[in-house]
Amino acid sequence: MKIAVLVSGNGSNLQALIDAQCMQHWSGEIVGVISNKADAYALERAKQANIETQVIEHKAYPHREMFDDAMHHQLIQWGVDLVILAGFMRILSEKFVKAWEGKMINIHPSLLPLYKGMHTHQRVLNTGDVFHGCTVHYVTAELDAGPALLQGVVKVAQNDNANTLAKRVHELEHLIYPQVVEWICNQTIQYQSGQALFKGKPISKPLQLCQM
Ligand code: GRF
């Protein structure tokens, strides 16, 4: 399976995927990294791992669709089977999402369907939730709403602030994202007609890894 990772920033999830690729012997390979920002540190991480990089700056395109088309062409050129969004901070057009339906996953820092969108850690604290975490899900046209696959769960401590929570959630992201990719590579997870399957059975509730 040929994998591309789309990034915009630090790329700690990309690093976790690069490390796991070496350690876990996936039947997949990260063949390229695309960033919409030329100064994303994620690009350095890819270069250090000898992975091809492409900067496709959204600012260079007058319309979202044109930017997405440029990414699409690069992905096709690399022969990509799986697209991984790892801190990619652009909303994707419906056309792009349709083209990669069932072949594109994202990680979001909340227990979806709770807290779609931004500033999830602070919103969890404001609400006073007991649990928080992260979710790997297939990408569909609706933001942060595609079939959820695996979640990492942390308990919110009394003295947590948005930074301490973010740190613990991030650590869990680095565990669950490579796990999902391994499962997709070995077909433990599959996507059929808008539904995610685990070992051939529909995932009605995402699997959970709890770190208390
Ligand atoms: C992560 O918190 C992820 O959940 C969100 O963007 C952040 C990316 O972090 N989608 P990094 O660039 O992988 O360090």
UniProtKB/TrEMBL annotation:
Residues binding N(1)-(5-phospho-beta-D-ribosyl)glycinamide are 11-13
One GO biological process term: 'de novo' IMP biosynthetic process
Task: Cite the position(s) of the site with description Raises pKa of active site His.
Answer: 144
- Single GO cellular component term: cytosol
Q: Quote the EC number.
A: 2.1.2.2
In terms of CDD domains, this protein maps to:
FMT_core_GART
Asked whether the keyword Transferase is assigned, the reply is: yes
GO MF term set: phosphoribosylglycinamide formyltransferase activity
| Catalysis performed (reactions) | N(1)-(5-phospho-beta-D-ribosyl)glycinamide + (6R)-10-formyltetrahydrofolate = N(2)-formyl-N(1)-(5-phospho-beta-D-ribosyl)glycinamide + (6S)-5,6,7,8-tetrahydrofolate + H(+)
Q: Which NCBIfam families match?
A: PurN
Q: Which HAMAP family match?
A: PurN
Q: Which family does it belong to?
A: Belongs to the GART family.
What protein does this entry describe?
Phosphoribosylglycinamide formyltransferase
